[in-house]
Amino acid sequence: MGYEAVKGGHEAIENACRLFVYERVKNVKTPIKVEQIKDELYLLVDRVMSEASLYAPQLAALAIKQAAGDCFEAVFLLRAYRTTLPRLGYSLPIDTRNMRVIRRISAAFKEIPGGQILGPTSDYTLRLLDFTLFNENKKTINKFINEFLSELDLDVEEFPMNFPKIVDILRNEGLLVENFEGDRTFSDITKQPIIFPAKRCEVLQAMSRGETGGLLLLAYSNMRGYGDIHPTIGELRVGYVPVYIKENLLSGEVISIGEIKVTEAEIIAKFEKQEGKPSFTLGYGLCFGHNEIKAISMAVLDRAMQSKNPQMISENQEFVLAHIDGVESMGFCNHYKLPHYVTFQSDLDRLRKAQKEYKERHK
To answer: What three-state secondary structure class fits 252?
Structure first.
């Protein structure tokens, strides 16, 4: 689509931007610090990083503040910044078995090697407003932290550094179908457009930076019966994984550049025959930060799009991948706010002409 440039209005646009900032700060007594957003609203920061495809907690918090809490706008800001960064190289494949786990649960088995680790979550609480937060201050925070730490049993056994994978239990018994592709080459969707049918690595990349709500909508439609995936969570992990790169391509020396927090979900789904033998199938999801809804939705859609005879939209690879990008969908929605004078005047002319012809035919 082409648009004619609108002349004038620069002063009005600048003042609109200034007014947006004014609305954000006009009633502020103590400005919220970017560091506070990063620490206190960490789940929102994690979501923005994931959908922006850039692991940068400080910058994600800055984008949230600049966008006045608009998640879509914050993702847009961070992804735009991402495009300005140089590409220094690629990290090596990460083995999530080496995850430093902070949360690990399985809905498939009650007793699992290493035990269920509930970790930080509000899953098991009543959704009631906590009115004490109105009066939260440094004193109340320190009191809570001191009481919490004093109750910890510091004499317990040292926490293990890693845990075995639950799905390996099924894999070792030959109960799980392995869905490895013949083409194991890696594709980078930020450098090359997706061509359908897309490889599984491209599908997972697209979903990992997809909008959480969009992924949930499509996965939920499948769960409710507009599809055939009734998942059981084999394992859900949240934790920190080390990131490695090759320092020198010639020497092949591998170095660690730090660690990132990720959420990983492996779902066990419907039976499928492999060489005539019925087996479970697996769906996989992984994203930046702590975002369990997104990882589970990814895993459901990953399995759904492996259907050999897709019938529902959640099983249609092209439909799913074309509608889950939050920045793209937000941009298309927002473009309707731009001037459409010429096209609308054309519609008006055609409607008036059609009505005139209708009146003449029905005199």
So the answer is: coil
Please report, in tens digits, the pLDDT of each residue of the chain (363 residues total). 344 445 557 888 899 999 999 999 999 999 999 999 999 999 999 999 999 999 999 999 999 999 999 999 999 999 999 999 998 888 999 999 999 999 999 999 999 998 999 999 999 999 999 999 999 999 999 999 999 999 887 665 667 778 899 999 898 898 888 665 556 678 889 888 999 999 999 999 999 999 999 999 999 999 998 988 888 999 999 999 999 998 876 677 899 999 999 999 999 987 776 667 788 999 999 999 999 999 999 999 999 998 888 899 999 999 999 999 999 999 999 999 988 999 999 999 999 999 999 999 987
Which tokens belong to 287?
């994203």
SS (H, E, C) 274-307: ECCEEEEEEEEEEEECCCHHHHHHHHHHHHHCCC
Q: Report residue 57 as tokens.
A: 């907690």
pTM of the full structure: 0.91
